[in-house]
């Protein structure tokens, strides 16, 4: 079994995990904005997410011979370690609920703000729990100021979304006035409730572009995006999006402490002489429960959709290949990202490993570059956005500086 033991190796795992975990949400957001049902996308994502855990367990978890107290993955599957297995599976369940919630929150709140708020809540609650579970191996005088910076980022993230929503409302109001006074000669439905049926809007695989005259951040862009996307958001309260976002953040804050308990057995639930779950075995059970919950809920949502999405079916899902390869890629990125986070956390402390919650820095980059978020917004929105990202950078740097070293 391959074990990350050095502090440098742990930080390398965290940085790679940071890129993976910050990229996969952008891919799922892209598919939703092109009109693909989130239930279809998430089912595809779930399959490869679990596949990544299996690959990690059968490679890193099987390298070399078993050691005393650190058995290989296959060896440990037959041991009497169910109390720890249950902790790992509980972590997978809350992660699955959090991921499922964010795919709807992205539509309402935007990729950047959703990731900032959920990640900050994860750090504020999860890091505090992990600090005490890890027997305080991280430096408290550095760790908790870093967590405070994340809390400030939560507040700034909410302010960014509120300001940007006001900007968009003003743009749409101006567009409506233009039509009312006859200054525009193109008729368009701002609150179009039906899904587009023409071939151009269904070209998900090749990434069809908006019309050449439509520029990022304009009112026409917002209207065209609304008509194309799977989840309709016009006319809905921003509190819906923020409520879903905060619920997702609470779920995310619990999965890492649960995984910590699974691998280190701080509550002494295992029988004497039974080895702790190695990180790869714990990650396998963690991902298995995540997979099961996602399959059950998304199949339910196919026939009983939420947020006024159209009904679907297993048959329709199996025939929907538009964008499937992107959804598969997102699942692999998330699976390997989570695995790397846990490998680094087992070496340097799970509280420090929460530095990967800086993933909004990556997500915001994709949000601005690919989706045109915050284009043509007000000066106030730009100032709040810059402040939010600055606090995030400071928080990540401080959190990584608190890294300790776990005694094996």
From TrEMBL:
Primary location: membrane
Alphabetical list of InterPro entries matching this protein: UPS_plant, Ureide_permease
Keyword Nucleotide-binding: yes
One of the record's GO molecular function terms: ATP binding
TM regions (residue ranges): 6-30, 42-61, 81-98, 105-130, 142-161, 238-262, 282-304, 325-344, 350-371, 383-402
Entry's localization field: Membrane
Keywords linked to the UniProt accession: ATP-binding, Membrane, Nucleotide-binding, Transmembrane, Transmembrane helix, Transport
Top-level taxon of origin: Eukaryota
GO cellular component: membrane
Membrane topology: Multi-pass membrane protein
Entries under Pfam families matching the protein: Ureide_permease (PF07168)
Family: Belongs to the plant ureide permease (TC 2.A.7.19) family.
PANTHER family: UREIDE PERMEASE 1-RELATED (PTHR31081:SF5), UREIDE PERMEASE 1-RELATED-RELATED (PTHR31081)
Name of this chain's protein: Ureide permease 2-like
Originating species: Nelumbo nucifera (Sacred lotus)
Higher taxonomy: Eukaryota, Viridiplantae, Streptophyta, Embryophyta, Tracheophyta
